[in-house]
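For reproducibility, we list the full input for the S-adenosylmethionine complex.
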Amino acid sequence: MDYDVLQKDLCLLGNSFVAESITSFKDKLAFASQADDIYLFQADCLDLLDKIAAKYPNGCFDMIFADPPYFLSNGGITCQSGKVSTVNKGDWDRSRGTEFNHAFNMQWLEKCQRVLKANGTIWVSGTMHSIYSVGFAMQKLGFKLLNDVIWQKPNPPPNLSCRYFTHASETLIWAAKNSQSRHVFNYEAMKEMNNHKQMQSVWNFSPPHISEKQFGKHPTQKPVSLVERCILAATDKGAFIFDPFAGSSTTGVAAIQTKRGFCGVELESEFIQLSTKRLQLALNKRSRI
Ligand SMILES: C[S@@+](CC[C@H](N)C(=O)[O-])C[C@H]1O[C@@H](n2cnc3c(N)ncnc32)[C@H](O)[C@@H]1O
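The corresponding predicted structure, in tokenized form, follows.
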């Protein structure tokens, strides 16, 4: 990829965010489609968020979807495709103790709050390993909690120890930047999607379809349909969406499919490569419509 071309006069059209100004991060740009407002950086999100916040003190993102480390890769076991396997998703998911994990959640959430526009909202996913820390951090930071949404999984793996209930759900916290925010909620669109009845806070989605893993899989990949619903509920067309823990860029794919802009950050080269292929395919498909 010709990074010079990508970086030339790089700006996010339709948004106040101008990536060109993040000069020290130009070398971190891994993928861009300027015409579509789609950008992916290979960086530590804590560093990139500081740069963006310094340039845009009033915020520049309409919505954030964050799927942070759940801190559950500690040698436990689970069942995958009928076989026993260890819960080891990568070093980035290893718990470093309750205090450290919570301090990390405070740190990235505080930085995300700064880059949200005044009326912007954030979605954060988690399980019992992380979501209570995330929720507490959000309350400490003055976010306005809007909903906790349960993502119910229709066919979860069995619990091998038979000493616990089968883990069949994850939680998404939806929150606005602060108590003054006048957040977007596309009530009618959600109602229409739910057979003309008010959309409830329990959502049933299957894990990512095999076609979402055609270029390889990320160990904690989210279904595109789940992220799409968050985007459709909380933003208007042309909105600019940020993901600090992009992984395989499910949020980017969902943003492309719903005609929104996307800026993602991911540390690992393997997932940057996977993201690049997924983003390019989603853009190609959209241009054919
Ligand atoms: C839970 S996964 C996200 C999966 C994603 N939602 C998807 O559907 O593919 C979290 C990702 O965050 C990345 N990560 C962890 N710490 C990071 C950091 N400080 N900055 C940027 N990325 C980070 C990990 O490499 C991992 O790919």
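The radius of gyration is 18 Å. The chain has one domain: 40-288. Both points were considered when choosing residues for closer inspection.
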